[in-house]
Specification:
alpha/beta; 8 strands; 35% helix; three-stranded mixed β-sheet; five-stranded mixed β-sheet; globular
Length: 190
């Protein structure tokens, strides 16, 4: 059954205000069809700085651009339960494809959404090019049908690892021409 949106971007965040702005702007400014994208954000309810930054800076920018988004708050669960944020965002989303995203990621590819939609009828995990060409799909992109089949995105916080292992074992992984900078100080040389 077709969903309202083509792609839902699942983005848990905490306290990275400037990074969140850069990340969201890179996604939106490099998309071809913003109307087909649903941005799903997760905030800890005690992340006052992050929530305030979103409300005062990111939200007005998204509204002006006409981007559909949902911002959810959670009792703080930490990185150890990252999958619970992502699973909840996926469940609340209404899109044919899911993308796991980080607030410290920068989309480098113009038309990244079009690249995903070139695979719209495929039951594959798409792997973008990221730091050091890691063997896992660090920012996995996969059909919502996977979530519906398994009942979750991941059972543990290493979402990229679990999804990548499943895809590798079933020969369902495809490297696509999407380039992402994982803007972590330990990964990016300045």
């Amino acid at each position: 059954m077709s969903k309202k949106f083509k792609i839902a971007v699942l983005l848990p965040t905490r306290g990275r205000t400037d990074a969140l702005s850069r990340s969201v702007i890179s996604l939106c400014n490099r998309a071809v069809d913003l109307k087909s994208i649903q941005l799903m954000l997760a905030f800890d309810e005690d992340d006052n700085e992050g929530i305030e930054h979103f409300q005062e800076n990111v939200q007005p920018w998204l509204d002006k651009k006409g981007v559909e988004y949902t911002a959810m708050t959670f009792e703080p669960m930490g990185y150890i339960r990252l999958n619970e944020y992502v699973n909840a965002l996926a469940l609340a989303s209404d899109a044919d494809w899911l993308v796991f995203w980080n607030d410290d990621a920068i989309m480098e590819t113009q038309g990244w959404d079009r690249v995903i939609m070139e695979h719209k009828d495929e039951f594959k995990l798409l792997k973008a090019h990221a730091h050091n060409e890691h063997p896992y799909s660090i920012f996995p992109m996969w059909p919502r049908e996977w979530y519906d089949l398994f009942g979750h995105c991941s059972r543990h916080q290493m979402i990229d690892a679990e999804l990548s292992q499943i895809a590798y074992m079933l020969d369902l992984i495809e490297i696509v021409p999407i380039y992402i900078t994982h803007n972590r100080p330990d990964l990016v040389k300045t």
